[in-house]
Each structure stands twice: as structure tokens, then as C-alpha cells.
């Protein structure tokens, strides 16, 4: 995930480091600069709003505590793991980092048949679910695409798009898409990347957008993602996604301002004359 701030000087550079607990020691770092737009927000909507349907009982807007409870209710044997991150920034030539904050929770059922993941909004606000994914591997008595799709339609209603690649073998693929309520109509991203930045993944007419063009007003028009892809005939792999693109983008804009405020506080000039 990348959060960047105004200017582009060394003292305003912001990067983030992600770490998983309890056993993942992988470290990722990245940094870039963008222009900081002014914050806006769609009327009557907040990042914590619970919208849309659920995946495995998980809803957008849930707290981490609710997520953990739902995952354990879904399957008592599930192994739950949280992923945290912190931001690094420079001020007056000195490097600082923020406190760690939660960016994702992953649940894996032993054997790998089902994996659940949620991504959270960033500080300074409290974390709320902004993205949900479910992966399902069927290796024993898999359902046909028709039967799996029927189960999805029974739960979510008729999709707005139902696309297949015309194959009827192990490489068959079918994607069902629904409209995510209370989100815009502009397609802004190709998919969800749990716990990672979305601002540097915006696309327009099939091409990646320059981050300087991704503003809060533009993000407010983004359609949410709500889709399931079925692979194989019968289905051996299914993946579902619900992603509130606007909520994730808004939290990143707020995080940029939050970190830039800390840069400004640590860059204050003094008034006492030097002893010469």
C-alpha cells in the first residue's frame, strides 16, 4: 500500500511497511508521491456504513471484532490471522514511523478448501471493512457451474452481468456480477487487493490512471465490485468479491492528510536565535 503526500520533497515522502501476525515475517515497503486533493464525501455515506449483502456472513462496515466472531462462527476450525502495517515518513531529514494499524484479517479453513479475507479502512478513523473475498476449492464432488450459479442467484438475486468463455471443460470460466448498492456507476478498478492501496490501481477505459488524476470527487463516482467467478466445469475453484472502492479511497485520502499533518508538526521552525 502506498500513501503519499503533497509536494514530493524528501521531508514529505511517505511509505508504508506491512507485517502479518503471528508467524509471517515478510516485509514489504514502497513509496511514491501524489498531489493531495481536497477531501470530499458523498452525502449521507460514511466509511463505517454497512451496505450491500454478505459473503459468508461478512458485511462491509464491520469492525475487526465482528469479523473475528463471524469467521469463527462460519467454521470452528478456521485459522484467523491479522495483518498490520505502519507508515514511514521524513521530517527535517529525520525518519519516523506511525504506530502499527490493522489492514486485513484472513481466515483459512484447514486443508485450504475455503479462504476468507477482509480489508479495512486506514487511520486516523477506526478500521471498518471495505473489502471482502472468499475463495473456494472444490476437490470432492464439485458442483456444476449451473448448480453453483443457481446457489448464488438464490442468495443474491439476478446478476446484472453473466459472462462465460464458452468452454465446457476444466478451463471453463463464468463470472456473475451484481450492482453494489449505494455506490457509483463508474468502473474504477479491475479487482480487490486485500489490505493494499487502491489509489494507485485506478483505471479508466482500460488504462491505468495517473495518481494525480485520482481525486476524492472522482473516487466518489466509483462503482463497487460485487462478483463471483466460477472456474472449471464442474467448478473446482470459485472466488467472490465485494469491494467498496469509494470507502477504501476515501480512507487513503484521509490517511495522506493525517500523515502530512504529522510531517508538518515535526517540521516546525524555531524562534530562538542561535548562539554565535
Structure notes:
The protein has one domain. The chain has four helices and 13 strands. The termini are far apart. 17% of the residues lie in helices and 29% in strands. With 276 residues, the chain is an alpha+beta fold.
Strand segment count: 13
- Element pattern in H and E: EEHEEEEEHEEEEHEEH
How many structural domains are formed by the residues?
Answer: 1
| Structural class computed from helices and strand pairing | alpha+beta
Mean pLDDT: 85
Count up the helices: 4
Q: Considering DSSP H and I runs of 4 or more, what fraction of the residues is helical?
A: 10-25%
Main sheet, how many strands, which sense, barrel? Answer: 11 strands, antiparallel
Radius of gyration: 21 Å
Low-pLDDT residue spans: 1-14, 18-43
Shape: elongated
* Distance separating the two termini: 46 Å
How large a portion of the residues is in β-strands, by DSSP E? 25-35%
Amino acid at each position: 500500500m502506498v500513501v503519499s503526500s503533497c509536494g514530493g520533497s524528501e521531508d514529505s515522502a511517505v511509505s508504508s511497511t506491512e507485517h502479518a501476525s503471528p508467524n509471517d515475517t515478510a516485509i514489504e515497503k514502497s513509496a511514491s508521491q501524489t498531489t493531495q486533493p481536497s477531501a470530499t464525501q458523498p452525502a449521507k455515506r460514511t466509511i463505517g456504513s454497512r451496505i450491500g449483502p454478505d459473503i459468508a456472513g461478512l458485511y462491509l462496515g464491520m469492525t475487526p471484532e465482528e469479523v473475528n466472531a463471524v469467521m469463527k462462527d462460519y467454521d470452528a476450525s478456521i485459522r484467523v490471522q491479522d495483518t498490520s502495517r505502519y507508515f514511514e515518513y521524513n521530517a527535517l531529514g529525520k525518519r519516523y514511523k506511525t504506530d502499527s494499524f490493522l489492514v486485513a484479517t484472513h481466515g483459512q479453513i484447514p486443508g485450504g478448501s475455503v479462504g476468507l479475507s477482509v480489508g479495512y479502512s486506514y487511520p486516523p478513523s477506526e478500521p471498518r471493512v471495505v473489502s471482502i473475498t472468499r475463495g473456494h476449492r472444490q476437490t470432492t464432488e464439485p458442483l456444476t457451474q449451473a448448480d453453483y450459479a443457481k446457489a448464488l442467484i438464490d442468495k443474491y438475486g439476478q446478476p446484472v452481468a453473466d459472462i462465460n468463455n464458452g468452454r465446457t471443460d476444466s478451463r471453463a470460466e463464468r463470472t456473475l456480477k451484481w450492482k453494489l448498492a449505494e455506490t457509483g456507476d463508474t468502473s474504477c478498478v479491475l479487482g480487490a487487493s486485500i489490505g493494499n492501496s487502491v489509489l494507485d490501481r485506478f483505471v479508466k477505459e482500460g488504462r491505468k490512471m495517473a495518481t494525480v488524476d485520482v481525486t476524492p470527487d472522482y473516487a466518489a463516482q466509483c462503482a463497487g465490485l460485487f462478483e463471483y467467478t466460477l472456474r472449471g466445469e464442474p467448478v473446482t475453484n470459485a472466488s467472490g468479491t465485494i469491494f467498496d472502492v469509494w470507502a477504501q479511497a476515501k480512507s487513503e485520502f484521509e490517511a495522506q492528510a493525517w500523515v502530512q499533518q504529522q510531517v508538518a508538526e515535526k517540521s516546525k521552525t524555531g524562534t530562538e536565535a542561535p548562539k554565535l
